[in-house]
Each structure stands twice: as C-alpha cells, then as structure tokens.
Amino acid sequence: LQTQITFKFKPFQIDLGLDSEDLALHFNPRFHDDADGAVLVCNSKTAGCWGDEKREIHNPLLRGSEVKIVLKLSEDVFEVELPDGQEMQFPNRADMDVITYIRVAGDFKLTSFKIC
C-alpha cells in the first residue's frame, strides 16, 4: 500500500485500518500540542483501545502550507515520507496486510489522493 496525499492544512488526521475501531495507523500532526508544541503523532487502535503514541518532535509541516505526504506499508512497518525528506516509521502492530478503511479528516483542503 502506498498513499500520496497533497493538501493545504491546519489540524488533520489520516487513519488506515480495518474500520474506525481497528486502526493500523493513525497519523496526526499537531500544531499546538499541550506537551510538545508542534509534533507528529502516530498510534494504532485495536478493538477501540488506543496503543502507546509515538511522538516525533521534529514537525516540518507548516500550518496553511501545501505539502505532499506519502504513506507506505512495508510488511511490518509504516513509512511516512514528509516534504522535507524526513521519514517517520511506525510499526504495523496489528500485522494488517490489507487496509480496507481509510479516513482523512480535519481542517484542510485535499487536492489529491492516490493509492498504489
């Protein structure tokens, strides 16, 4: 699975999984996080229960800018490619090899979406 998303954004999230209660990847850039300010957050959800967050303090995304983000599932890990060349990895905790649920939500304008 490879997903490319280009958009102008404010807060948003991208969810990939089986359904809203079983997410292999929850990608959630935050621009005003209480603990860390601007931070990238990845998590998973199994049977409605959230796992431990992985937080990346380096957030190259700027509010209101247009960016391209590429999400890749490579067997046991998700790779999130960001516009500055940074790559964030997140384990495929649920060992999902098929993604049947995709949700992109938040305050942004989606200009393209591609699944390869």
From TrEMBL:
Keywords: Lectin. PROSITE patterns: GALECTIN. One of its GO terms (molecular function) is carbohydrate binding. Residues 1-116 form the Galectin domain. It comes from the Eukaryota. InterPro entries: ConA-like_dom_sf, Galectin-like, Galectin_CRD. Signal peptide: none annotated. This is Galectin. It comes from Cyprinodon variegatus (Sheepshead minnow).
